[in-house]
Design goal:
Length: 322
């Protein structure tokens, strides 16, 4: 069975929209399974480590994948996957009672690449759902990767290059991340929770400041890059020396300089009287808040000291000889 999906693209014309809740559910499912499995390998397994179904709705040629639920399965002695179809149908019925507009549109698994075992699962899921989509999440952490480690696959009938017989193969399906306001707030809250599992106010502030510091550091690096590029530019204008212009390694980029000038002039002016007044007001309010917090903390400590002193040196205690 051909499972080479590196160059095959879907021709169905469907527009897939993936919601962040699905990615959070799949990641949480994989993390819990890995944490509860003794001796689990940190790398992705060839067989699907976790499996589940995708819930969504279709409107015309657009399919929204909004939610997911887990599915139980067993590995047979011959290496095949045995799905718990009764459990799948029961979960589908339960979700249908609460989310009446959502139907099972596909399934998910974890792994690095699509394999023959995934195709076997695809055939079994197709017996319950017509034309399911397959979401593959790569659990291996790659810091050099820029996009999400998520791939959507559809199945199409293609001729085998070896035998010439027709067969189902996985083809990549393009998708876009779609989110609502409620999901955006939830994802932002989850992102602020630290690996320690706690999310107090001070820790959330520290995480936010660290993220802001990283963003400012990246902005500074980009500005330095632009500054160095402009520093190497030689002003080879109409009045410039022809020999100097010919020896210049970098020509005079008029279009680039116009873009830089437009970007600089689009920035808000920060040296106005209104900005300074607003900045000083916020700065003073922040200092007053810090001073009030320090005074409150000091008053609380002094109150504790007074309570302990009264408990240790009360009049009744001194009469008893304490």
């Amino acid at each position: 069975m051909d499972t080479d999906t590196s160059t095959r693209q879907s021709t169905s014309g469907l527009e897939w929209k993936l919601h962040p809740l699905v990615l959070i559910n799949v990641s949480d499912h994989h993390t819990r399974t890995k944490a509860n499995t003794p001796g689990a390998s940190p790398t992705g397994l060839a067989s699907p480590a976790v499996m589940g179904c995708l819930l969504g709705s279709q409107s015309g040629r657009t399919v929204d994948i909004r939610n997911s639920f887990e599915v139980r399965y067993n590995m047979a002695a011959d290496g095949s996957v045995e799905l718990d179809v009764a459990f799948l149908l029961k979960k589908q019925e339960q979700y249908k009672q609460v989310f009446k507009t959502l139907d099972v549109v596909g399934w998910y698994a974890t792994g690095s690449v699509a394999t023959d075992m995934h195709m076997q699962c695809q055939r079994k899921i197709s017996e319950v759902v017509e034309g399911p989509v397959f979401l593959l999440l790569d659990p291996v952490v790659d810091h050099s990767r820029k996009d999400l480690p998520v791939t959507l696959y559809e199945t199409e009938l293609h001729l085998s290059p070896d035998s010439g017989a027709p067969g189902l193969v996985f083809v990549r399906a393009p998708y876009a991340i779609e989110t609502s306001d409620a999901e955006r707030i939830g994802v932002d809250q989850v992102a602020r929770i630290l690996p320690s599992g706690r999310a107090t106010g001070s820790e959330q502030l520290s995480a936010q400041l660290a993220s802001m510091h990283s963003a400012i550091k990246m902005l500074l690096e980009r500005l330095r890059l632009v500054h160095e590029a402009l520093g190497r530019v030689v002003a080879a204008g109409p009045t410039a020396d022809a020999a100097a212009a010919a020896a210049a390694s970098v020509p005079y980029p008029h279009s680039l300089l116009r873009q830089v000038s437009s970007l600089i002039h689009s920035l808000p002016a920060c040296d106005t009287e209104a900005f300074n007044r607003e900045y000083l007001t916020e700065y003073n309010d922040t200092l007053l808040t810090l001073y009030l917090a320090a005074m409150t903390r000091g008053t609380h400590i002094a109150n504790e000291v007074v309570d302990k002193f009264c408990l240790a040196y009360d009049k009744a205690g001194r009469r008893r000889g304490i």
